[in-house]
Specification:
- The protein has helices at residues 36-64, 72-82, 88-94, 114-117, 125-136, 163-169, 182-187, 195-199, 209-222, 246-265, 278-281, 306-318, 336-345, 361-364, 451-454; strands spanning 10-13, 18-22, 105-112, 140-146, 174-176, 201-203, 227-231, 270-272, 289-291, 323-325, 382-383, 400-405, 410-415, 420-423, 428-431, 439-442, 462-469, 475-483, 490-493, 498-505.
- With 512 residues, the chain is of the alpha/beta class.
- Strands 1-4-7-8-9-10 form a 6-stranded parallel beta sheet.
Length: 512
Amino acid sequence: LAAGRTPARHLIIDDGWQDTVLDEPMTPWFHIELSKPFLLLRSILLLPFRLLSRSLRWYYTTLVQHAPARSLRIRLWRALMALAPSFPSLRACLALTPPEDDFRKRLRSPHASRRFLASCPDGSFKALISSLKEQHGLQSVYCWHALLGYWSGVKNNEMTKTPSTLQLQALGTSIVRPRPMPSILQVEPQLSWDPLTINGIGMPKDWQADDLYETMHSYLSECGVDGVKIDAQAAVTLMGAERGGSAAQTRLFVKAMEGSVARHFGGQNNIACMCHPTECLYAYSSTPVARASDDFWPDDESTFTSHIANVAFNSLFIGEIAVPDWDMFTTLHPAAPMHAAARAVGGCSVYVSDRPGEHNFSLLRKLVLPDGGVVRALLPGRPTRDCLFADVTSDGSSPLKIWNHNRCNGVLAAFNLQGSSWSREQRRHSLSTSHPRPVHAELRPMDVERLRERLGGWQGRWAIRMCVWGEDGGLQQVERGVFSDTAGPRVNLKRLQSATATVARLWEGSGR
């Protein structure tokens, strides 16, 4: 990135650095490694289980996964999965993820794992953080963790105790199984058979929530880490049964987390993720940044465009609570130019998750300054008024327009997001067409909310400069003009095209 004149200034070390382990009940007898003489015997004995597992997996993916929430297929599968917690072997046969899947793992210690440390300079996490800052000029390094430690919480019965695991053993965690409410199951029936629901989450006692974050964050702080990205926050909202209710339970852990962040990282240095339940959003008092959408899925074409609609519309609400995080994208992706344009007006950070050495520097240099900074809009990017009640992903004609302010002027962007949307019936994004028709957009000064008031009640004319970006990120058109408040440049946008515009008040002098 530095060689391409777009140096990184912020790094998030994502899921994979922590010391985690599978619980014994999640590893049934037929996953235990045996010596060679017993391998053939085990293979013969396992054949019925494997056939059953494959048959159930086929049944689920073909008939259950996207079935209507109230269908008989969903109800039968839910009843079958309800038996799984009591029968480890049945649980393994019914598993829709492999035994080593991360969602089934629990946090064993607050320290980095041996596997991760093996890739660090001198085997030291602290040395890695120091080298990132000193040799690569990073200003801050964050680390990922789940709100309850890891996806399935904290390990509660580790047999081989070390000084690092003893810190978590003192928490006295217990396995608690989430209980999704019926209304939630209407939206996401798969929560009934989610690995966290079947295997439970290792949770500390309520009065030890502060100790959980103290243990994790003190280690990270000592290593030179500057903040944390805290994922899987929605999980705690399912843990309120017999614990005071979901709102009280969520508020307790969020308060403990925010207090620990303030003590160890010197302020509001945390990013909230998977945090859209109102129990989470209403519990924040100092969390500064919150993810505004599901992940950016680079391999799922049906999400390329709808992701931008999601972050923009969700920012209407989330932007009143925290700075919306519009997630990362990859710069060599087919939809990267459109996502880059969205980040330019989104008022959000610019994250990329490129593979090392695989970057589109021509695109990055449109967003990133030579010193690694970005020209960031002042507010959360939000849809313009004329888009609020339009179906910008499926009606075949409406563009999405996003407005924002910079330090001097207003900014606008328009996108053709038609052709893909979320299906409530199938509970997934789906393509209605891969070749949507062009959409017509007009970028007007009146689309930028509060701009006139910000400029002292300006009643004059406006200067607008609009750039139209092609599917490949190339500049296709530049238009400049002077307009009234209710008019602006017009453009027809094809699939994956976008337009950005700057709106400035026009100073008209005496002609000298």
